[in-house]
Amino acid sequence: MFASNTTDATVSIINPGTKMVMGTVPVGKDPVGAWPAANGHVYVDNETDQTVTEINVATGAVTETINLGLSLAMWPITLPAKSYG
Question: Are the C-beta atoms of residues 53 and 62 closer than 8 Å to each other?
């Protein structure tokens, strides 16, 4: 089991049987979730860094950090005009 630790920028690896923390993996800034995939990896959404960290479930090692390259400038926001009357 994997649990994101947002304030520490880490993910804890937890033994589900004993509920003991088996290790801690550094990831990007502000991780908000850890999702297992069928390919033997867990993917961690690092909100502030706008990255996803890939962790090998068998070894607990980071195998890749994927930069999402997102920017708020990519989605300009246009607010509707407001009439005061």
Answer: yes
